[in-house]
Design a protein that fits this description.
With 394 residues, the chain is of the alpha/beta class. Helices cover 51% and strands 10% of the residues. The longest helix is centred in the N-terminal third of the chain and has 21 residues.
């Protein structure tokens, strides 16, 4: 797969992929024959006519599913569900304190508990891409670009105009929910920029602890609240927020219809809106190498089955939103530069030691960065965005 990527990405990617392969002990010891079988099938795929590929893909799926059971943990079952959302996989937590009851959510919480400290040390308080835009200066730092992405997301949600409207008509601060808040970087930025009351929720207890510490240091404890909650069943009050902010977290959501319905429930029905920015797959059919790359990213980054932005948009009306317009922001975020920097940083001695110290999940997270760069390079991963407004019929 990586032979098709730019040479600098290849060099870094191969080192991490080899480490990840070694960390995945069972695969390294017992899967040589199966790997050769997959390689042969992929080569045959290149020679097939377009008309026969659908049938051949069924053969590959039949081959791959039992292997996945041998090689991966129980969470891979989410990836093997049909392309519709995995509504049958989740058990619905009854209270917010059960935010990590589901195995996938436990993995997500553990992933961010382990890696957030390394990320903050290397990149600061914002755990997301940056916005460079067409013709942006090459001297722009990662931190400056990350702030620019938040500014663009705020424009997407038209938060400044809504803030002024609420202050004029209701005499109060705008209320924002930051879903998947990380260590609270965006929450604090929203509180400062819009004088907002911000609630941040995440599955990671360590992120909540760190977010509270940073809010106290910034004198924003009165304006910000951070809690461990499940975005599919938050326990927060109906209609309690004017804006829900979801910046690079929705890719973790296995049940998209339920997520959108829960967001709609929490939004003010007068002018509530969701500003959604998320990783997606391209619309339409994927090649075999693309499917395989996404499956490994999903396993190593604790993601469910990937969907397109068009799929997200199609779910909006049934969840109580007006039909939205999907946007592709991929060209504005310099993904190859971003993921290349992550790979470079991952291979620095101090970070290799840190990644190895937290076990195979650290090494695999670094390797997944290589596949993310490859996905953007081949255009089967999309950096999607859209604004969803509460329907007037609600």
């Amino acid at each position: 797969i990586m032979m098709k990527a730019p040479p600098p990405v290849c060099a870094r990617a191969l080192v991490l992929l080899i480490l990840a392969h070694a960390a995945n002990g069972q695969m390294a010891r017992s899967n040589v024959a199966q790997t050769r079988s997959l390689s042969n099938m992929l080569m045959q795929h290149q020679r097939l006519s377009t008309a026969s590929r659908a049938h051949h893909k069924r053969d590959l799926d039949a081959w791959n599913m039992p292997v996945s059971h041998q090689l991966r943990s129980n969470r891979i079952r989410l990836l093997q569900q049909p392309m519709h959302d995995a509504t049958t996989v989740l058990r619905r937590p009854t209270v917010a304190t059960k935010a990590t009851e589901n195995p996938l959510f436990n993995d997500i919480a553990g992933f961010y508990d382990s890696l957030s400290g390394i990320w903050e040390r290397e990149y600061g308080e914002h755990m997301h891409h940056g916005w460079y835009g067409p013709g942006a200066a090459n001297s722009m730092t990662v931190q400056e670009a990350q702030i620019a992405l938040m500014e663009e997301t705020a424009k997407l949600g038209d938060i400044q105009a809504l803030k002024e409207k609420i202050e004029k008509e209701e005499g109060r601060k705008i209320r924002i929910l930051d879903v998947g808040c990380g260590i609270g970087g965006a929450s604090r930025w929203l509180a400062r920029t819009f004088d907002a009351e911000v609630t941040g929720i995440t599955l990671s207890p360590k992120q909540v602890q760190r977010a509270r510490e940073l809010a106290k240091e910034a004198n924003l404890s009165e304006q910000t609240t951070f809690e461990v909650r499940n975005a599919l069943d938050s326990g927060l009050a109906d209609g309690s927020f004017d804006v829900v902010w979801s910046l690079e977290m929705a890719e973790h959501i296995p049940d998209r219809p339920r997520f959108l319905s829960e967001i709609n429930r929490m939004l003010n029905k007068k002018y509530g809106r969701l500003a959604l920015v998320t990783w997606c797959r391209k619309n339409g059919m994927l090649d075999f190498d693309e499917e395989i790359a996404l499956n490994y990213i999903s396993e190593w980054y604790n993601l469910p089955r990937w969907v397109s932005m068009e799929r997200w948009a199609s779910l909006a009306p049934d969840a109580g939103f007006k039909p939205p317009t999907p946007l592709d922001w991929s060209e504005n975020i310099r993904p190859l530069q971003f993921w290349g920097d992550i790979l470079k940083t991952s291979l620095e001695p101090k970070n290799i030691i840190g990644l190895l110290a937290i076990g195979d999940k650290g090494v695999k997270a670094g390797a997944a960065a290589a596949l993310m760069g490859y996905g953007f390079y081949k255009d089967f991963i999309v950096f999607g965005a859209m604004r969803l407004d509460v329907s007037e019929s609600n």
